[in-house]
């Protein structure tokens, strides 16, 4: 039965994408859904974009091994990121009528910086997408016995197809449908496992006191890894294009901010469910933690020990989550390619041709992501890699540029170059403290000092625009 229902489910997703494509009349429809998304759509699509393979297959295995310190870094940090953006960033940037993060850098600093930041952001996405493709390939292997590499390609083609034809409208509608399935599937599976254990009390009683600590082991390495992952999810993701693509797609700044708070709540609340499922499954079947480093513990539990209805509902929910994340992550860099590389350098291009090139960029991003997926199969590691580049190069000029009027073009270049140089140097030197921590500090210091050493001639008029109501 599972063999029948899963292909039907995937076909329904493709049909939704095809139906949504009828609303795509121009580039704005494709990239920003015509700026018509309600707060509910914004919140759900934000949640669905982040609630993917990492939250269901990567993070739960870390929770089983490390306890509540992993919950803080891998679950709470992401929700905190949405809340921070809602509190401090969303309203200011929405007023500027932007399409991408790169547009802000072009308006605030220079065209050359726009191109540089856009390229950095584009290169940050393939590892993130690769993590989703790896997870889907693991699922196809579990359900159909399909070779992993073939599963990666098939997954990429499925996501690419409905993202290509429907853009943000397809992503939004499928995210809404998939989020309902995600919640239903997770809750039903959790309830089923609770019947076997008699509740969570026996599961938690088997754990040592250290499992319940919100902080890591009190060692340099422990704190370094903890802070690096927490900062990657909470700070590194603040300039991520997929967040602002949903903010800029909202029908108003109020809808965008409300959507961010909703997304934050959903991400933290629903992300706890797969972690509880994983720890319960490990309690019942500890041998499953030895397969793929525990990344497959939830799918393996469902396949081996659950009834057919549970399998159908769960795998439909899991595929929902991963497809949502993959589609949003593919659309973000494709939008940057179209808006910040093609449109910027060819201002006379027609909207119809720009839409075509933006769609073709989806195909290109999918192909590159497949390459990353073939190289590395660690889901959480792939996600952290994608966020590290943004954190050490983009966060400082982005944040200082919004909130500090004395930020200068020279300071922004210094932040990008020094942040990347320190990060790469520490990476090669294999420093005890994680390189992203050094890179982030170095980038912020360079932004501040560089702006004081060589200030811009006058305060940029963009600050007046951000204050307008």
* Helix percent band: over 70%
How many domains comprise the coordinates?
Answer: 2
> Between the first and last Cα atoms, what is the distance in angstroms?
55 Å
Give the CATH topology of the largest domain: Sodium/glucose cotransporter
Q: Tell me the name of the CATH class of the largest domain.
A: Mainly Alpha
- Give me the strand/helix succession: HHHHHHHHHHHHHHHHHHHH
Task: Spell out the CATH superfamily of the largest domain.
Answer: Sodium/glucose cotransporter
Which architecture of the largest domain would the CATH scheme give at its second level? Up-down Bundle
Question: What structural class do helix, strand and pairing data support?
Answer: mainly alpha
- Rg is 22 Å
**Number of distinct helices:** 20
Number of strands: 0
Q: What is the global morphology?
A: globular
User: Could you describe the largest sheet, including whether it forms a barrel?
Assistant: none
Low-pLDDT ranges: none
Mean model confidence by pLDDT: 85
The quaternary organization reads as single chain
InterPro entries: Na/Glc_symporter_sf, Na/solute_symporter, Na/solute_symporter_CS, Sodium:Solute_Symporter
Pfam family, one: SSF
Membrane topology: Multi-pass membrane protein
Main location: membrane
């Amino acid at each position: 039965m599972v063999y029948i229902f899963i292909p039907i489910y995937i076909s329904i997703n493709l049909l939704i994408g095809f139906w949504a494509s009828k609303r795509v009349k121009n580039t704005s429809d494709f990239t920003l859904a015509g700026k018509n998304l309600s707060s509910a759509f914004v919140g759900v699509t934000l949640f669905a974009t982040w609630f993917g393979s990492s939250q269901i297959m990567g993070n739960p295995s870390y929770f089983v091994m490390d306890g509540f310190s992993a919950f803080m870094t891998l679950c709470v940090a992401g929700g905190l990121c949405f809340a921070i953006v809602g509190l401090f960033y969303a309203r200011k940037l929405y007023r500027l009528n932007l399409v991408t993060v790169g547009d802000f850098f072009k308006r605030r600093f220079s065209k050359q910086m726009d191109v540089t930041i856009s390229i950095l952001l584009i290169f940050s996405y393939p590892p993130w997408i690769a993590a989703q493709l790896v997870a889907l390939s693991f699922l196809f292997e579990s359900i159909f016995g399909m070779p992993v590499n073939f599963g990666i390609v098939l997954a990429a083609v499925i996501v690419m197809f409905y993202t290509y034809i429907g853009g943000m409208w397809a992503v939004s509608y499928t995210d809404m449908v998939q989020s309902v399935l995600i919640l239903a599937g997770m809750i039903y599976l959790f309830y089923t496992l609770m019947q076997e254990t008699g509740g969570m009390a026996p599961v938690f009683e088997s754990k040592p006191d250290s499992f319940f600590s919100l902080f890591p082991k009190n060692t340099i390495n422990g704190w370094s890894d903890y802070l690096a992952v927490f900062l990657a999810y909470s700070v590194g993701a603040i300039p991520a294009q997929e967040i602002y693509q949903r903010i800029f797609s909202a029908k108003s700044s109020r809808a965008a901010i409300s959507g961010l708070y909703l997304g934050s709540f959903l991400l933290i609340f629903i992300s706890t469910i797969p972690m509880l499922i994983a720890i319960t499954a490990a309690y019942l079947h500890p041998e499953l933690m030895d397969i793929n480093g525990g990344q497959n513990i939830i799918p393996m539990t469902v396949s081996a020990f659950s009834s057919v209805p549970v399998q159908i509902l769960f795998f439909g929910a899991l595929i929902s989550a991963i497809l949502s994340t993959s589609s949003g992550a593919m659309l973000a860099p494709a939008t940057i390619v179209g808006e910040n590389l093609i449109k910027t350098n060819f201002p006379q291009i027609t909207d119809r041709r720009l839409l075509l090139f933006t769609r073709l960029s989806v195909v290109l991003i999918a192909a590159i992501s497949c390459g990353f997926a073939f190289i590395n199969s660690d889901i959480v590691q792939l996600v952290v890699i994608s966020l590290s580049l943004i954190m050490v190069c983009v966060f400082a000029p982005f944040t200082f540029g919004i909130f500090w009027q004395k930020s200068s073009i020279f300071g922004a270049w210094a932040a990008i170059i020094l942040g990347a140089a320190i990060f790469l140097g520490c990476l090669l030197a294999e420093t005890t403290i994680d390189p992203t921590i050094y890179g982030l500090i170095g980038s912020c210091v360079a932004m501040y000092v560089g702006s004081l050493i060589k200030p811009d001639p006058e305060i940029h008029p963009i600050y007046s625009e951000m204050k307008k109501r």
